[in-house]
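User: These chains co-purify. Model them together.
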Amino acid sequence: MQAMTTQPFAIEVHDLRMNYGSYVVMSDINFRVQRGQILVIMGGSGCGKSTLLKYMIGLKEVEQGEILYNGKSFVKAGQEEREKVQRSFGVLYQGGALWSTRTLAENVALPLEEYTELSPREVREVASLKLSLVGLKGFEDFYPSEISGGMRKRAGLARAMSLDPAILFFDEPSAGLDPISSRRLDDLILRLRESLGSTVVVVTHELPSIFAIADTSIFLDAQTKKMLVQGDPKELVKDTETDPKVRNFLLRGELSDNQNGPVKRRTGARTK
Amino acid sequence: MQAAQEPTASVKITRENGVAKVLVGGVWSLRAKRRPNLNQLIRELESSGEVHQVRCVPEHLGHWDSSLLVFLSDLDIWCQSRHLPLELEELPEGVSSLIELAKAVPEQETGRGRLHKHSFFYVLGQWAIDGSTGLEAAARFVGECVLSFGRIFSRNGKVDWRLFWLTLQECGIQALPIVGLISFLTGLILAFVASIQLRQFGAGIYVANLVAVAMAREMGAIMTGIIMAGRTGAAFAAQIGSMKVSEEIDALDTLAISPMDFLVSPRVAALFLMMPLLCLYSILIGIAGGAVVGLGVLNISLEQYWNQTLGSMGLSDILTGVGKSAVFGVVVALTGCQRGMKCENNAAAVGNAATSAVVLAITWIVASDAMIDVLLEVLKL
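Assistant: Joint model of the two components:
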């Protein structure tokens, strides 16, 4: 793999272990993502997908293992170095996590005020532009409580993009969205990757999303507490060599149905 | 269905060649007052010789619900402990498939029930450990706050200035009515209590002294402290706690903006600045409350009362009270913010954070007041 490209991988994770205190959530996590790729972290509910994201963006301290961004260690970096790397991240949290005392424009503007030398007028212009990119032009002066959940997510995305991040992280972008809004968000993610060239990491278990956006994916298995595979989900699902657990997940449980015989769908009359 | 006419649930055992046949019959309902007793069935199974298979067979089985499933899954657990196969195939299909579904995922090692097994000494030890880690966390928080002010004064910290001005307004002007009311009543009560005692000695005029000194040195600061703990400290804990729940704090963290600089320090600074002003106001209103009693009950003239008040207290009394209130302001803000930052990620935790912020703040206000008094006494101030 290394020979294919002279550039270092955008993200590399080696032998990462995730734990809450002495309780190990998952161990031996290894994967690599090239610049501009979309990685989907998938797995059943409660397997530690969002926790992995927290380790990657530095919200949880790594105790064992290594995370590298562009070939440089994120784990061993000093405070200043680390914050510099963090500034190249854009994170979209599950509920948007907009600061509720600030308007949408102010939410998008805060990172700009903090890390650029732009004048207040320019900041406002950039914030408006970012909001219009996610289809929220005209909502600059609304507070997060005044808009819908889907809009909040898009506004969160606008904020995540405010500093033109090298890596975008999404925590369950489609959670709580109707299928059409969810589809639109997928399209938006693809289009942004295309135009900004960012690397994207998405935590999700929505199959349509996974097939629509993923270049590569990893599967976390809650039972064995291990990462099972890395690969393009479209390939993984076709390849019969793939771990059956992963194929079963990608096929929405069809494999296990065939083993146990399909569930008989009959109605009522149980006392007969 | 003829369920209504059928008899109540029943189980019977027959036995052929080491196969125990459990005949399940009747109507099984969770609402029924009496259901077959599993222990009795097990006793019967155990008492009568060797069994190497248990087979459940329906016999006039009517309507059934979860009560039958619970019975059968308990029977299944017993059979497994004896390594006896349990056959359910002859029961209605719904029964066997639901039992199968319940067994599909094996029980996880969750340590269920471990909470109830600790001895008294374990609990006592745990309590002590929790206490000391709590103290350590509090000390760490105070240290972080000091560092944060260092960053802000050296212009390296990002502060939410709007939050600062809002908090200033919220714990300044907007707190005046409630602080005024409580202080007025406090002064009134002090004067009443004093007048009953002092009138016996014909020393009614000294009510003015007592009210003035008590309000200036103690009551002004304590009353504003307690009001602000309930009003503002709880609000701080709830605001920051709910920001934690909705991942707003995480969003600051990943932008490398310190929540301490951004959210905590402006609140601490605002309360530190406003509390002394509130305290001064409280002292004045308290004295006015005392004067109402002096004028109305003791028939002292306003001029007399005013002169007596001025003569009784010095600048040091007022400075003591005002200084204390600044300390209380920091105490209230820090406990509120610390509880908020420590809040867990769920809605109930926000309520707990607010409650414990108020309790802690009031405890620390009274404790630090006592410490300051002892210190002043020792230093002869």
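The interface with chain B takes residues 54, 57-59, 83, 86-87, 89, 91, 93-95, 97-101, 110-111, 114, 159, 270-272 of chain A (CB under 8 Å).
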